[in-house]
Fold this sequence. Notes:
Elements: E1 9-13, E2 24-26, E3 30-32, H1 35-38, E4 44-51, E5 59-61, E6 81-82, H2 83-101, E7 106-109, H3 114-120, E8 125-126, E9 132-133, E10 141-148, H4 168-172, E11 178-179, E12 182-183, H5 189-194, H6 203-212, E13 220-222, H7 226-229, H8 242-248
Antiparallel strand pairs: 1-4, 2-3, 4-10, 5-6, 5-13, 7-10, 8-9, 11-12
The structure holds cobalamin.
Amino acid sequence: MAKKVGFADVGITHPDKLENLPHGWVGQVRKLQYPDEEFPTVRSIIILAFHIWDKIFNLNVTAPSSVRKGPESPFDPFEGYFLGYEVMKNKAWKIITFLQSEGYEAIYSVGIPLKPIAVQCGLGWQGKNTLLITPAHGPRVNLIAILTDAELTPDKPFQEDLCRDCEKCLKACPTKALSPYKCTPTRCMVYSLECPDAPEVPEDVRRLEAKLTPRPTPQSYLECSICMNVCPYGKPPKNSTPSESVKSLPPIVVM
Ligand code: B12
């Protein structure tokens, strides 16, 4: 059903198979929770991977009130709109409705640590860019989870790390946010965008973010995805390589 509604891949695991999950605040941007904190009766976790087949899925429209002011500020990940998330939620609802019609409870979640859980679901490995890399689409997938009390058959975890000696993502990051298997969030341009007032973002990162981020309108921007785009796994045709796609975007327009 996941494939029928438009997800590229799907995997299942159980909460008791998950160990050492990241938990709590990641910088000032997101709070990660354990699956049973979000859904106490959870018995299965379904991870759905949506193929980002066009850069516009990285479009973010920011509601003025959704700019995060730190861990204490009210947290609603859907106050702004991220196109990829909107598409995934829409598709996930069809599966949730089906589970409910079978008598189960189910909710979607983007608040649990999706990447290590996706590895446990057999979807791929966490690469040097820290992203979930799938054999078919590389890291060009967004993830969403469905937590349900249905007891579904779990998949086998993905055991390999296929990055080997490739370091294209590390070299391509304009702000040097990446070292192997580690992202320094405050050096990532996406963090800089989401936290415009955060003092922990270095000046050189702010400057590059202002220069390189395409802004179709004053309230919207395309999230950087260079470390996704350069990955050789599942790489799209040459005319949409990251440097070319950045060049082919409209100039930054400030109205
Ligand atoms: C917080 C967050 C951010 C923050 C911080 C990034 C980060 N890496 O944590 C910021 C705002 C910077 C960010 C940026 C981006 N993000 Co983001 N982000 C998240 C979020 C909410 C949590 C990520 C997380 O678990 N962080 C916690 C830290 C501890 O995890 P980690 O970096 O993965 O660290 C692990 C490894 O580094 C490893 N590790 C650390 N040190 C070492 C050392 C060694 C030697 C080894 C072996 C391993 C290792 O262990 C850590 C724990 O597992 C998830 C959504 C979710 N709910 O999961 C999306 C998510 C990970 N982001 C996503 C994307 C796509 C991006 C961007 C490309 C922006 C975009 N266009 O959307 C960039 C990429 C930056 C990058 N390379 O990480 C996607 C990734 C899809 C995929 N294929 O994996 C997710 C899953 C959102 C989604 N729903 O699809 N993100």
